[in-house]
Amino acid sequence: MSATTLRAEAPVEDAIPAGASMLHELWRRPTGVAGLMIIVALLVVFVAAPFIAPYDQAAQDVSRRLEAPSRDHLLGTDHLGRDVLSRLLLGTRIALGTAFPAISAALVGGLILGLLAGYVGGWVDNVLLVVLDTIQAFPTVILILALLALLGPSLRNMVLVIAVTRIPGYARIVRAQVLALKNDLFIEVERSLGAGALRILLVHVVPNILAPLVILLAMDLPGAVTTEAGLSFLGLGVKPPTPSWGVILSDGFAKIRNSPWPVVWASLALMVTTLGFTLFGEAMRDILDPRLAGTRRG
Asked: Contact at 8 Å (CB) between 60 and 81?
């Protein structure tokens, strides 16, 4: 058997379905399609929010404070007379602008650490496992609050803290996948042909471990959104008058007896966002995980 034939046996083709096949499989899952539609709508709002918001999110009209939904203010006004719809639309930029960088940074950091731990092994693996175990030993909320207390509340620090707390999950998945792959036949053939460790990792290992990472990414994004909202609600995230959903919730709870609408709409935005990413993540899990393929269609 030639080296060329052995190279072709690398299971990259089966790791992630082709684009057309993946879309076809996704289309057969109504919940996945619903999740994708919600995500697309959120991304449109993320880009177009400054242009489609009917009012300036910081414009105050105290004479119309705590109004119910009306023709002028479709979702009502808050305790300072600001338009709730405009603030929710701009809040989408804070939510996704925090979640995407934080989870992307966690993915990259976990990928690097997991590749080092799994492929190099030895004392490097032991040291990294101790570090990852130490991070995971702390309750996530307590760790986030402690780090923000040290770094100070800001959007940048919030992204950093969320990323740090999510890195161990990605690193452990990558490590396990690398340990399962690094002694496979096609990897041994690459080594015998003189391929270096970097080429083996980037060309052969990484493409074959992307599927579980994509699934975890989709499932982690709603968690990052709710974490940002929770921190902003506690005053440890973005500061008023920045229109974070957590800030809207915090302001709304202070006046909930006078008007429940800000709390209702902000909670609904969080619920829909979480639902969209969760449905999409579950559909991607069914498609990309060969053990689940075909078991939950429709």
From this structure: yes
